[in-house]
Amino acid sequence: LPEHTVSMRAALRQCVAQIDIFQEDSRRYRVIVRRQTIDSIESLDTQRDKSYHQFWERLRKLGDSEAPIPTVSARAISSPYKFHQDYHFRNLPCLIQYDESSPHHSNPFGRVNQEWRTNDRLHINSQWFLDHVGTENQVPLRYHPMDNKTTLDSEGRAAECETRHVSMKEWIDLLSMEQEDHSYYLKDWHLVALLKEKKHTKPPYTCPKIFQHDLLNPFLTEFTKGDYKFCYWGPSNSKT
Length: 240
Prior knowledge:
44% of the residues lie in helices and 11% in strands. By secondary structure, it is of the alpha+beta class. The strands form 2 sheets. Strands 4-3-5-6 form a 4-stranded antiparallel sheet. It has a two-stranded parallel sheet with strand order 1-2. Helix 2 links the parallel strand 1 and strand 2 (95-97). The protein is elongated, with a radius of gyration of 28 Å.
């Protein structure tokens, strides 16, 4: 055989041998990675369950007198992954605090803090909603029927609320009344979508970086007319 043919066949045999080694190494690697992944998931589940039970046991002992929910400064969050490790993966609640004096571009809720609150920072600026949403725009209110004060059904699950639609002005009037039971609260209101329909110049807020990995909203906004962005608004001592 010509010399170049012999050389090509020898090179081909070497390639086949290297491919066999690579495939064997790949199989071993997949087994190792799979085992490490399973171990990591099991470890994460253990940590999450432990943290979860410790938090709610502490809450149960304290009762309603104190709320041991940690407040996290947005500036102190070094990375989204670190935040998810500390809270999300462990299924623990926290309050994320932004510096109100920060400019809007660095505070995703800067416009909300400025426009939705009164000058004394103590109350909701109802006039903003009347001006930008409209006095007659319908909003969904949720409430427990008067004949059903329990929050659990017969099987121990959370009892379903009833829904009532009222105008924006009616809702604000309800908030100004003295209500002993605080039964009404606004829930599941697609405010961002509504403002977009009304050609509002800018969204009221931007999504913080730690929550930008979102599976639901991109799909809903791309293939449906809906979104998964809700506004909740209730008087003091109301609950869901």
